[in-house]
Amino acid sequence: MTNRQVRSRRSCLAVPGSNPRFLEKARGLPVDQVFLDLEDSVAPIAKEQARSNIVTALNEGGWEDKVRVVRVNDLTTSWTYRDVVEVVEGAGENLDCVMLPKAQDAAQVQWLDLTLTQIEKAVGLEVGRIGIEAQIENAKGLVNVDSIAGASPRLETIVFGPADFMASINMKSLVVGEQPPGYDVGDAYHYILMRILMAARMFDLQAIDGPYLQIRDVEGFRRVAGRSAALGFDGKWVLHPGQVDAANEIYSPRQEDYDHAERILDAYEHVTSEAGGAKGSAMLGDEMIDEASRKMALVVAGKGRAAGMQRTETS
């Protein structure tokens, strides 16, 4: 990400804003991000109280080592405006991002950007500090994902919402994230994930995979998460404490890969310097490294640094 701080989002924990016990428990879990939810996990009659619960929870603190996000309701509902106003006015100093679900076009993201700016100015918050996460959950959102990703400098992530997406395209399956019956070759989600990834990377944003609802099937979670991690996704939603360690592991570089990436960066910096002969390429052991090697190493090293990894060797 070029214009905003890079935040580690290997594990993104969904927490219903209507459940004070879950809000309290979430503080102690080793996740990179929490998003306090006002949307699908909150019943319509509980949404107003959920806003108050979330403001209180954010202001009480205990989230300082996590990215703090609130997911508001989508713009086709009557709740979104009050969600944004009450949460940002009440706890904007302790909020990192607002997540907009079911984003369908750039104008919706721009609405949120403008609304955040107005609130920040009105209550004296730093203008532009609060980021935006846009969630792609239907066919229209995916078709428009390029313009959505470029809609605001506040954007930090593009998020895949698989359950609503599956419904929106009439996918014949009730198991979120798993291959639909009859799809026995390839991956039914590959195109969707790649479209989101390409749009995110075009604007230097992070790409986040959605939830795996079979919360006690950790091996299933690992299998599904491994697919998006292999493509280059930065993290995945977690719905249960049992999924947290798996997400943090899968979306982190392996230690040997992180060490090797840092070694490539050190070696390339030296060989391209005057002291190193100002060369464009060199051998690192049995491997030739050049500018392309540096770019690839930056990706792996960047993920490792964001996750707080440390080198185990310096040679």
Total number of distinct structural domains: 2
Radius of gyration: 21 Å
Sheet of most strands: 8 strands, parallel, barrel
Structural class assignment: alpha/beta
Contiguous helical run count: 12
Q: Beta-sheet strand percentage?
A: 5-15%
**Mind telling me the CATH superfamily name of the largest domain?**
Phosphoenolpyruvate-binding domains
**What order do the strands of the largest sheet run in, or round the barrel if closed?**
1-2-3-4-5-6-7-8
Per-chain topology:
Layout: E1 11-16, H1 20-26, E2 33-37, H2 47-60, E3 67-71, H3 80-91, E4 97-100, H4 106-123, E5 131-136, H5 139-143, H6 145-149, E6 155-160, H7 162-168, H8 190-202, E7 206-209, H9 218-231, E8 235-238, H10 241-250, H11 255-271, E9 282-284, E10 287-289, H12 291-306
Parallel strand pairs: 1-2, 1-8, 2-3, 3-4, 4-5, 5-6, 6-7, 7-8
Antiparallel strand pairs: 9-10
Q: How do you describe this structure in short?
A:
It contains twelve helices and ten strands. With 315 residues, the chain is of the alpha/beta class.
Describe what this molecule looks like in 3D:
The protein has 315 residues and is of the alpha/beta class. It has 2 domains: 11-250, Phosphoenolpyruvate-binding domains (TIM Barrel); 255-306. Helix content is 44%, strand content 15%. The chain contains 12 helices and 10 strands. The protein has helices at 20-26, 47-60, 80-91, 106-123, 139-143, 145-149, 162-168, 190-202, 218-231, 241-250, 255-271, 291-306, and strands at 11-16, 33-37, 67-71, 97-100, 131-136, 155-160, 206-209, 235-238, 282-284, 287-289. The strands form 2 sheets. An 8-stranded parallel beta barrel has the order 1-2-3-4-5-6-7-8, surrounded by 6 helices. The chain has a two-stranded antiparallel ribbon with strand order 9-10. Helix 2 (47-60) packs parallel to helix 3 (80-91). 43% of the residues are buried.
